Each structure stands twice: as structure tokens, then as C-alpha cells.
């Protein structure tokens, strides 16, 4: 260790990060010192960062019984020894020839992550070989996106775990010290992970001006997601509003940063903007702060104001300059030691408790006020600390808006119980008889007895765990043959808890590689996109045209994904009376889709729950037309029997060969997965559905003749009322239109204004009618000016009343000033 010589002649390690800085200064050339130490302009922001921490006061708390403190924390699912990581900084090789490898080794020894700069001086492979703790990549987005993409791909190949997009650098700030020094990198200092071609990296500011993309907007997050599946953080957010935008863009974390005062001089100190940003973020993603952290207690101060962790910048470079990796280790150990001291003296047992501390010159939060003069024996026992979970530590799907889609609707329905609701896609309740369910179960038991089953066997079938793939597969197989022309042996069927479980099983089994993509017709039933989100399956929406799905669009999507190096694995579609659009694929389109599937080795997930409750003759299912076993058919009895049974099924007759050459069916593999999901579909539910199938000889079309007529009538009344309120000339003038499905539960109405949650609220509040914004069903942008009307749950009289209310709402909305301006997304 290179320490200074004390008056007594002994060399001692630095006792503070400032001492490290002092020693580093003497070891570096003035120009390099200025390069790392300097800020932009008059360095007001640089100074403000530190001053904000200097103002911070932490109140000591005594006799808390906290004992040994635990500074460890979990960020993006990984345990860190303390809430500190090394900030991304260019060219560690300027400080020491080992550069980032030394830093990575020291960070690993301390159990802290390193954020590797786009301009690292050592290669990702070298850094990864030295690292033993998480590595993240800081990303600068270049004008040439291909360079950025390759950078990310190389980093991913080396095992980088997250991307930190720096968003405060459309150009480099004017750093006067560098300008005065005419600072240039020595020829041997180059960015090891960027192309060494014609780019001149010697002047960072000059390269920044020509290389960095100055026109980035929030869509860059989508772009990053399209090139990488890694978590994405944005670094450089300084306002609550931008934090909200970042969350809306789907980031996994935010770094509150002013780039260590090196960009906009005059920007506030990061610590000063932290609290409002933390309030806006509200635990929805990881929140990290950097700038001016120079002591362990600064870490605690940032945590107290809502940060989950901090990045340490310049002090790491100081350590590196002083003694290479040993110096970095010294710096990190010192910070952790100081943090431990601060935690212990403030009675902060864990980092979660840090939120209870005082902020800068703040006051102690009420939770920590002493309990006053209450006599000891009367005092209530302090409450047991409850386990507190953070959303950011949960799987990212729980923050996916898809999984939240229906919350707003439910909330509105609860608040306005008297509205006419065109929202729920539910069967009409008048068709249910409270005693019929018992008859169904009785009939099934009689059927088992008639088949020779003993009382004991029947008892077992009803009360015990059952076969995973289901116990009514024979009846389902017969019914599919009678009703749908689908020839599926019982062994090719798995009985599921609703079609929803079928989707989950099929996706889990089929999507084995991160490059496998699910294509979906869009707008799309949220059950499938939600399941894909749970499983981390990437989704590529294929947009329906006004008159339905065009198979050429599916092919274009297949080719586009192939060009990106991903494998389109399956296409999900509701061919008949689709939810949500109501469209039906023509026979020709079905044939074309099957041909396309054969041509491109694509599987089709066919989901068709509305056929058997729709009037008239239905087109053949894709599965009945499928002679090459390309179609996996997802079935549901929710509409054709009743939804509370939660019984569905999958027909998966695809042969699966294992390495020894043995063959099974995909259904067998799905059953294995099911054994770890729901074990088996409840026997009671299967018995009820079986009884219903037996009652009609498996012919659900016959059983549903009356409901199908009713739903057809509901559709007719809905269309008739729309026509009545908006005759052709009126609807053309107003810019309103709708499709005319031939069955199902839904239709789409196009409107000339944004049909968003705010409009829905006005519709409920002022006009007593509810519908579903079509945008809910688009995996990407789209549907902003369309609504879904569901007519299945309403009587003709309610529909008549509801459409009159809807007409009044549409009229009022069109007359609202500015309501019919353009939207950013596509309309349907
Ligand atoms: C020499 C130096 C190089 C830097 N290079 C980068 C970089 O390549 N990418 C980036 O996002 N931030 C970069 N930063 C900013 C840091 O990541 C961080 O925001 C800042 O240094 C934190 O402030 P602190 O140094 O006061 O701790 C750099 C900072 C310094 C001092």
C-alpha cells in the first residue's frame, strides 16, 4: 500500500476518501487530474452535489437494541454486500494500466457491482474474467445504432446483467478545465469495446459531439428492449416528471444523476431532487443516486431520502490511481466501514430501516419520536416489524400493465354500480339454473356406474387427486368429433383449469430459447400476452386490418423476426368472432395460414371459445383443417357450459421425440408441466362439465342452440341501435364507425377522440355507461380511438338503454373542445 509517511516515519493508509483524493492528485498529471475531477462550466453543480451531503444531519438513536447492522441489500434480484456500486466511468486505464480489471476484482472482493462504461479501457471479456460480483453495462446510444447494438451483444455474451442507459448526454458538457488543457487521451488509451476503425476517440468532447445521438426520445427504451432482454435502467433523471415517464416507458431502474456535475452546470444537487423523485417512483423500480458521495454516512443519507443504493464515482478512480486494485479495495472498504459505523450509531439495523432516518437538516419522522412520558408498564409492546416487500424485487411481470389491465375497469364498475356495462365478456346469466349443476354431477356418476365402475372407484374419482391430464378426456374427445370435426384421441388432450392454464402450459413447453418469439394477432386477448409476460416470452404483434387478419402480415412478421436472428415459434389467434375485435377469419385465410405455418415451420395456437355460442353455421376450426399437426387447439367450456367450472383443455397431438428416439405426444409433456402448476383440474368441475356433455350427447352446439340465438339477437339489437342513433350520413360526418361481427360477444366501435381511461371515467360519471378502451388489447401502441363493446351479458332492453347512453356520451365527447385532435399512436 502506498501511504504517506507520517511524522513518525510510518506509512498509514488514507483515513478518508478525501485523503485518497489528495494522494491521487499527486500521482496524476494535472491534465488527467482535471479530466477526472472537473465539472462543466463554473462547476456549480459539482460543488452542489457535495454541499447537499455536507448539509445532511443524521440523528443518533440510542438503546435501540439493533445490534450488528446488516448493510446488505437486494437490487434487481441480486444480493449486494451494501447499497453501493461503482459508477460507470470512462477509461480506468488512465489511472492504472490494469484499468477496469483491477476495479472489477476489488468490487468483487467487496461484494459490490461495477457499472462498466461504454468507454471502458479493457474488454468485456477481461473485465468479466476478473469480476466476482454483478457487472452492468452503461450504454451511450450512438448515432449509429448498429454500434450500440453490437456493444450490447458483446457485453451480454460476457455475462453483463443489466443495461444503464445514460440519458443526460446528448452532447458532452463544456468542461473548462479540459478545454484549457486541450485535453487529449494518450494514444494507448482507447475504448476497448468499440470499433477501432476510423473514429477518433482522442478528444472525448469532440467524439461525443459527432458520435452520440443527440435526438433520443423515450422510444429508445423500446429499442433497447428490442435488442436485449436485460433489465434497463436510465441514468441522468433529475425530475419527478421524467421519473414517471421512465416508469411509463417500462424501465427497471432509475439513476438520479447529474453526471457528477459534468453535464448541465446549474443543475441541482442530486440529493436535493431525490425525495420528490422517490415519491413519484414509489417503489415501482429500483432507485439509485450518484454525485458527491464521499463518506459512508452519505450513503445512509441518500437511503434516508428514498434511494435504494448509490453509485460511487471519482473516489474509485482515486483509489485506482493511488494503488491499482488494492487502492480501489481500500476505498470501498473504507466506505463500507463508515457505512457500518453510521448505521450502528443511528440504530439502523438494516438498509430498509434507513428510510426512518432524518434527511438533510430535516426532522425526525414521527415513527421515531420518543414515546414520551407514558409509564413503562402501560406502554404498548412495539409492533413486530412486518415483512415489507418491494415491487422491484418481484418478477417484472407484476409491473407489466397487461396484468393490470382490468383493474381500472373493475374499480369503475365498483364505483358506479348502476351503469350499463358493455365491459365484461361474460355469458348471459339467465341461462344458469342453480340446481342443474347437481344434475350434471349425478349424471356423470351414473355414467361411471353404467360403465362398470364400482362405488369405491367412483368415490376415488370424485374425492381423490386425479390423473394430471384429466379424467374426462374420452368425453371431450367424442364431443370434439361430434361438434368440431376435430379428431383427437383422448391421449392427445390435457384437461386444464380454463383455457388460461392451457396457454401457460403451451407457452412454457414451446418457448425454450430466449430467441423464441410468440406472434399474436393484435388487438389481442390479454390472457395470452399476460401469460407470455409471466414467462418472459417476447411477443410480436401482427396488427389486424379493418376487415380482419391478413396472412401476408403474419408472414412479414415471421421474416422480420428471422432477420433479427429470433425464431418465430408460434402464432396465437382467435379465428372465430375474435376477442376483442369480433372479426372472423375467412376459410381462405385459414387455408393460407396453415400453408404459411408449414412453409415457415410455425405452430398455431388456436383459441376459439365463442364458436359454439354463436348463431348460424361456423367455419371449420383450424385444427379440423390441420393435416400436419401444426395446430395446438385451446378449448374452453366457460362459454359453452359455465365459467365457474374453470374447465378447459388443450389438444396437443404433436409427436415429441427424445434423444433416444422414443416418442411421446406434446400433450404428455404439457401434463408434466401441469403436474407442477395445478396438479389436476378439480374432479368436481370435471364431473359437472362431463354431466353437461353427457346430457347433450357431446353436441354442445345443440345444448347451446338457445344461448347462441340469444347472443345473435343481442348482437343484432346492438347493431340496430347503433344504426338508429348514428345513421350512415351522421356517422360519416362524426367519424364514427363499427364492424359487423357474425357472432361472438364483442364488436369494435371507432371514435374520433382518444378513448382512454379519462374518457371512460366521463362516460361512467356523466352518462352511466361503461365500455373497454381498445388500447388495453394492444401489446404495443394502437387502439387509442376504438372501444370494445361486449353485449353478451345484457338483455335487449339493457342494450337499448346502454346504446342510447353511449350515443349521448359520444356526442358530448365529440363536442368537447380539443377532443378530436390527433393521437400519437395508430387508430384502428
Ligand atoms: C472521469 C469520469 C468519467 C465518467 N465517464 C462516464 C461514462 O462513461 N458514462 C457515464 O454514464 N457516466 C460517466 N461519468 C459519470 C459517473 O458515472 C457518475 O455519474 C459521477 O461520477 C458520480 O459522481 P461522483 O464522481 O461525484 O461520485 C464519469 C465521471 C467521471 C468522473
Automatic annotation (TrEMBL):
Highest classification ranks of the organism: Bacteria, Bacillati, Actinomycetota, Actinomycetes, Kitasatosporales
The entry's keywords: Aminotransferase, Flavoprotein, FMN, Oxidoreductase, Transferase
Domain of life: Bacteria
Molecular function as annotated in GO: FMN binding; oxidoreductase activity, acting on CH-OH group of donors; pyridoxal phosphate binding; transaminase activity
Residue ranges, annotated region (Disordered): 354-396
Basic and acidic residues composition-biased segments: 375-396
Alphabetical list of CDD domains matching this protein: AAT_like, alpha_hydroxyacid_oxid_FMN
InterPro entries in UniProt: Aldolase_TIM, Alpha-hydoxy_acid_DH_FMN, Aminotransferase_I/II_large, FMN-dep_DH, FMN_HAD, FMN_hydac_DH_AS, PyrdxlP-dep_Trfase, PyrdxlP-dep_Trfase_major
Residue ranges of domain FMN hydroxy acid dehydrogenase in the record: 9-364
Organism (species): Streptomyces iranensis
Documented EC number(s): 2.6.1.103
Cofactors demanded by this protein: FMN
Protein name in the entry: (S)-3,5-dihydroxyphenylglycine transaminase
Pfam families per the UniProt record, alphabetical: Aminotran_1_2, FMN_dh
Assigned protein family: Belongs to the FMN-dependent alpha-hydroxy acid dehydrogenase family.
PROSITE patterns (UniProt xref): FMN_HYDROXY_ACID_DH_1, FMN_HYDROXY_ACID_DH_2
